[in-house]
Each structure stands twice: as C-alpha cells, then as structure tokens.
Amino acid sequence: MRYDPHHYPYPSRRILQYARHGMVATSQPLAAGAGLDILKRGGNAVDAAIATAAALTVVEPSSNGIGSDAFALVWNDGALHGLNSSGPAPGSLSAETLRAAGHDTVPRFGVEPITVPGAPAAWVALAERFGRLPLSESLAPAIHYAENGYPVSPVLAQAWARAADRYASLQPEGVFRPWLDTFAPGGDAPRPGEMWSSPGHARTLQAIADTNGESFYRGNLAERIAAFLAREGGYLAAEDLAAFHPEWVEPISVDYRGYRVWEIPPNGQGLVALIALNILKGFDLTARDDVETFHRQIEAIKLGFADGLKYITDGEHMRVAVDALLSESYAEERRRLIGERALEPMPGDPPSGGTVYLCTADEDGNMVSFIQSNYMGFGSGVVIPETGISLQNRGANFSLDPGHHNVLVGGKRTYHTIIPGFLTRNDQPVGPFGVMGGFMQPQGHLQVVSNVVDFGLNPQAALDAPRWRWDAEKKISLEHSVPEHVGLALAARGHDISWALGSGGFGRGQIIWRNDEDVLVGATEPRTDGAVVAW
C-alpha cells in the first residue's frame, strides 16, 4: 500500500497493528482470540476464519448465529475465490402464499421470513477446500465458550437488551418463547461483564463438528428444525435443508484508480458498491472533508442503490447482466446525472445482456474476507428449542410484487445485504476489508476505499473517519464527527440532512492488508467492541 502511516487526522480508541505470522480482525475480542489460537495450532487463515466465525455465533449472538447465511472471498495460491453460502426461500413459499395470508410485505419477524441457513455449510466448504485442520478443531473454541460461558461485552449488551424488549413485545408465549428462554431466561438480557453460556448451542456446534455439517442439513438437527417450524406454521422443511449446497462463484470487480475492488456477485449487494465506485472514479476528489467530495460520493451511492434495489436478486433470476451495470459506458451515462444539486435516485436502463465481519491472514499468503449474519440483530426471533439455533430472517428482503425483479419465489435467493470486500493491485493481494451493517455496507465499502485510495489514509484512519449514510430519496444521516460546515453546505445543495447522536447505524469495519515489506497491517472499527490480534 502507498498510504502515509503518519496521515492520521481522526481521534481513535484503536491502534494500527502490525505482524508477520498471522492476524485476525473482528468485532469481538474473544472471537478474534479464537481465530488466533487456531493459527498458533498450525491452522491457516481459512481455519482461523472458520474458528472466528463459529465463535461469533456464541460471543456476538446479537448479530449472527448458527442459523445465519455467509459469504467469503479467499486469496489462496495466487487467486481470489468467492463463496456464496446464502440459502434460498423454502420451496413451499411464494409471494402468492403470503399475499393470500393477508400480507402486503414479507413480515420482518416470525416464521415467514426464514430462509435456509448457509453458515454451517460455508464452514464445511471452506475447511474442505482450503483448510489444514479438521472442522472439529476449528469449532472447539466456540464450543468451549458456549459450554463454559463468557463475559458479555458492552456494545453486545446494548444490542441484546434491545432485542429482548422487541421479542418480549411481539409474542412472548408463542413462537418467540424459545428465543426468550435461550437468550433472556431470567426475563432480561445479560449486562456488560455478566457471564452467559448456552449448553444447547454447544451441543449443536459439537454435532456439526462431529458430522461435518451433515446433522444440520440432513440429520438430527435438520429434523428438529423442520419439526419445530411445522408445529409453528412455518414453511422451511427438511427437504429444503437437505437440498442446500453452497456455491463457489467468480468474484466481480472494478478498477478504482489503479486498485481493483472485489465483491461477491449477486444475489449480494456488493454490486452496489462497484457501480458507485465506477461512477465516482470519473471525478477528481481533492479533499477528504470537503462538501464536493461528500456530495459526489453520496450521489454515486444513490445511483448504485437505485440500480441495485431494482435489479439485484438471485443470480439465476437476474434480468440484467452484471457486466452491463459495470460497463464504462454505463458508468459515464450515470455520472452525467450528477450535478450541483441533490438528485432523486432513479434506476437506469443498462444495455441488455444485526451482521458480523471478520478477516484473517497467515504467513503463507492466505487471506480471508468473511461475513455472516442473521439480519436485523438476532434475525427472525425464532430459536429451535434447546439447540441455540437462532434462525435468520433474510426473506424479509423479498418483494411480494409479482413484477419486481426480487419477487419471492420458492427456491430463490433474495437480495442479500452482507458483502465481504477485497482489494488487489497489479494482480497482487492488498487484502480483505469489510463494513457490516445492513444497507450501510456498500456505503461503508465506498467510503473506506476512497479514504485509502483518494486520500492516503492508513487502514485505521480509514475506519475512524467520519461517515455519512444515505437513507432514502434525498435523506442523508451524518455522523456527529462530520464537520458542521460540510453538513450545512450539503443542505444548501438540496440534501435532507440529519445529524446522528451516536455512531450506531454507520457500520462496523475490519481491515487486514499486506504492505510492501510483506508485513500484515490490521485495523478494527472504533464503533464496536472489535479487536485485531496478531503474532
């Protein structure tokens, strides 16, 4: 990287980390430590990523779980590999089914938005293709924390308390009772520093380890998931679980001022970040905290989302080619729409044709960008009794409009918000990066890449820098640390500006890059309980 290590204009609670042998960065220190332990036992970056991801289902359950989906980008032996382990809608579910039941949109919580969980299958696929250690060894730290407990961290405790209030208010004696029994057994979420354990979670992880994931998709755990959901009027069935397999995919990318930015192809929303960066690179950005920079970045991401929210769905159902959306001619066409005033984002007409993020690296050159999530915190709020399996609610992103590109169809994967990122230069790896947080994620990717490439910020400063967030139409939220004059100038250009009281909703990122001296450089988000651990 060509960033200036002394260019560090933003205050931070974090310190840039350097190491040679290995590194893990994620949003929870105990999970990062689990990955580092696996590296020291002889595992590689992939084994460390699996260990960290599994541990996060225990030590940060407010953001992900065993019932999550997952995506990964893996640099191995000179090439970048993509893994899409997002599950489809149940075969028995359709837009017509939910409309007939009286729904205008897919419910956010309960049995309706549950899709096939992909995370356990992702762990298995990564271990089999690139790992050095058996899955049982990589899952051991997570099993230990689930069995013996751990002290809850501060940011986690806040999110946990919000979720406890939510599910208690929905249907506390019905489908949400197992969630309350598992995550708030005394009626309250655990407080910061309080010990929490989940024996059922430990048993489930052990079964996944012992059967190499088979129990979850085609064995005892699958039977328990299907039986409980059938009793509660759900749609996910044993045959949906048995039919699922993750997909190895070709990552997609754009060139951004000499760097290549990589994402997973649809159904993930990484395409939004690439569309926006492709537009943005046609402008000269001269100053980081300048209204012109903010305005152009915001307008570019609005145009990226306008296209993404219309066209992104399961890759098998895409009606517009990814190459068309990322073409230079289409980027120029969209770029011409950006003027001095805030625009109402509308999709173009291209030519036919609650999340956790982690990254790992080892001394052999392997690097992993990995993300998994239940969505909206704990997900659907549906937990399979005595298993710790908290099921995701990814189906909430489907449309019930039969004419929409992302209409709900049985067996189809929905528009997915979680996206791992990766940066290369001259066909060599710079490294993994990611910013979790729903629809903030492409916006975080764009801002972090621009901070580094356009303004020379080091990885920690790139994460620390004040952020903006496009919410809808012309509505923009600004982090409290954005200079006041920038906010006022944006408002004068027609943006509907609001100032956030805290840093919630602006994403939580991690970065590990390899510098020109073959030294690993790690940074973690100051907006969460994150940690970079290394040796």
Layout of SSEs?
Blueprint: E1 17-19, E2 22-26, H1 29-40, H2 45-59, E3 69-76, E4 79-85, H3 95-100, H4 119-130, H5 135-148, E5 150-151, H6 154-170, H7 177-183, E6 195-196, H8 199-211, H9 214-218, H10 220-231, H11 238-242, E7 247-249, E8 252-256, E9 259-263, H12 270-280, H13 291-311, H14 322-325, H15 328-335, E10 355-362, E11 367-373, E12 383-384, E13 389-390, E14 421-425, E15 428-436, H16 441-453, H17 459-464, E16 468-472, E17 475-478, H18 484-492, E18 496-499, E19 508-514, E20 520-524, E21 531-534
Parallel strand pairs: 17-18
Antiparallel strand pairs: 1-20, 2-10, 2-21, 3-4, 3-11, 4-7, 5-6, 8-9, 9-14, 10-11, 12-13, 14-15, 15-19, 16-17, 19-20
Shape: globular
DSSP E strands, number: 21
Average per-residue pLDDT, rounded, comes to: 94
Arrangement of strands in the largest sheet: 1-20-19-15-14-9-8
Given the structure, what is the number of helices? 18
Q: Ranges with pLDDT <50 over ≥5 residues?
A: none
Helix percentage: 25-40%
